[in-house]
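Researcher: Can you fold this with alpha-D-galactopyranose in place?
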Amino acid sequence: MSIVFSEISKEFHLYNDQISYIIQILGNGELGNLYYGKRIHHKDDFSYLLEGGLRSLAVYTKENDYFMSPQYTRMEYPDMGRGDFREPAYEIQQANGSNTSSFIYRNHRIFAGKKPLEGLPSLYVESDCEATTLEILMQDQLTGMEMTLSYTVYEKYPVIARSVRFKNKGTKPVVLNRALSASIDLPDADFEMLQLSGAWSRERHIKCRKLQQGIQGIGSRRGISSAEHNPFLLLKREQTDETHGEVYAFSFIYSGNHIEQVEVDTNDMARVSVGIHPDTFSWMLRLDEEFQTPEAVLVYTDQGMNEMSHVFHELYRTRLARGVWRDKERPVIINNWEATGAQFTEDQVLQIAQAGKELGMELFVLDDGWFGKRDDDKTGLGDWYVTNFEKLPEGIEGLAKKVEALGMKFGLWFEPEMVNKDSDLYRAHPDWLLCAPGRTPSPSRNQYVLDFSRTEVVDAVFDMMDQILSKAPISYIKWDMNRYLTECYSTDKSPQDQGKVYHQYILGVYSLYERLIQKYPEILFESCSSGGARFDPGMLYYAPQAWTSDDTDAYERVRIQYGTSLVYPVSSMGAHVSVVPNQQVGRVTPLETRGNVAMFGAFGYEMDLQCLTDEEKDIVRRQVAFFKEHRRLLQFGRFYRLQNPFTENDAAWMTVSEDQNEAVVGFYRKMGVPNGPWIRLYLQGLKENAKYIVNDQTDQSYFGSELMHAGMVVHREDLCGDGGDFCSAVYYLKKQA
Ligand code: GLA
């Protein structure tokens, strides 16, 4: 058991080989945090770490006791209104209008393993010995409200998973106006805060700033996790880099509105808050009702950011993602979207599939445009059946069978949460939109959001999808979601329950995913939201891969995939080669470079392959063959970031097999450098004393130590595009027998 409770000091010590996390039941029954960071040896009493004393203007918890002032104490799950003037973790509005609470320790239990969170994505264990969980039951004696704080510490990973469950055991309804998943007070604020932020087409760019007194943070009020801010932040020391130094990372397993922020107070303590965004949340809890928050994942390491990423990658790949595809190599995809848009004929798409087959690709995806009256983005969403038999004479079933007859698997695009006004679904159920009473819903991409907080809406969409899936051989679904939520009002709910709609919407999305994956466990799901606007850990629980960005330009993708790799495993990043000039940025990059970037992902192509010249086809054939040969290594190897495209002209990364016998290295240059310096890549993760052969050139071999410390020389002739703009190289390293 890696959670110990000391009866004498009333302390919980959660630990494994790498981390310690210490909570104390304070003198007044509230909870304080004594320590979170690198593992420290266990002893029964760490209470000296709780500091207090008389200070001007401070508010104290008891008369004549000048020790504990909430404002100066590292609180475990802070309240509001009683002298802790920093960001609270929760707020409960009582029937009398008061929002002051005082939760006191009641009891706790420690057990092996980890419980799932009902209706929500969460980390799991495969055997109870993988983790230990602590649940602390707290109660507000005045209102009867209960709160259970849950902590799971994994044996193998420097990880703590936190969530909170509220229950109204009082006599009157209350409203939860804020219910964060985690709050932690760190004793100093000498950190930089790093976030993954951007916009459509430039998602998850790395942004970093030094913490300052006050509040700094990110979040989403867009209804989904968003392209603007990923539900993640980390704090690192100024000297921390990829290989050294302290990192405190916070990731939120949720796909709706979220907040991640750090408040630095007057005394340089840093409070990190993670959870559902309180601005768009209020949850009426009637008697005996419960509210379960989503889960926050805390990772600590003193080994730098690559190590942090290894923890997230392994954890999210193997203890968050589920299903038959979790550990399976992903098929090479050919998708018709950038080639045809929504206007295509069956012949056209079959020819693309056929060309894909000839080049070694494995799965054809029919994107947007196959359903209802869909020829552009004004019609059809919501009608998940074929009505245009000129386009698809034998429907999806017929097309899927023809694609299978070519020796390819078949995949299909859906956008289940959306509706166009010009659709049978809207005409039959105009009240199924999210829409404020008496107001016109705001359009975006000519589409509107279905009210997924309503079960009958989710049921209706499930039935339509089920009809298709039960008849046609469909191996893959791209589940898209192409607008943000507005007028988030549900016509079937009381005024008091409208504050629930954003969260219930996401629960509806999760429930549809769950029903589909339960009924069709063999289907590979890829989530998508105008590219990567919902690339979050919540989605990974249902769909093991996500379309990383609509931006398929090679240079932009290096940055997007580099940023995404901070948290998300390579196998989860949908990455396709597309045509030049690139549709998003008009840039021309070598075909080799486009492939060299995309192969570090769930690889595929998104173009009309028939338009390629013979020479280009040869390049593609070689790329696909190389990818297939090294697919396990590329998708499931240990990924190291080597050179940062956000700060340098050159970028590099590599992936190493578990046994360290093989590696693939990718090097990417932005602008060609005239008469530039020699290039050396300092590799990582190899065996120091093993000898490696590079690109099968058996006349030379190099010790891992050489490649890591003296560096691997990148020769100009290795670079496609002659070392000019956007050139690149990929190297395959194999340990000498
Ligand atoms: C979104 C997706 C694209 C494509 C289009 C289809 O933008 O990100 O990949 O599927 O929708 O409309």
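Model: Folded with alpha-D-galactopyranose in place. The pocket of alpha-D-galactopyranose is lined by residues 337, 367-368, 413, 480, 482, 528, 530-531, 547, 550 (CB under 6 Å).
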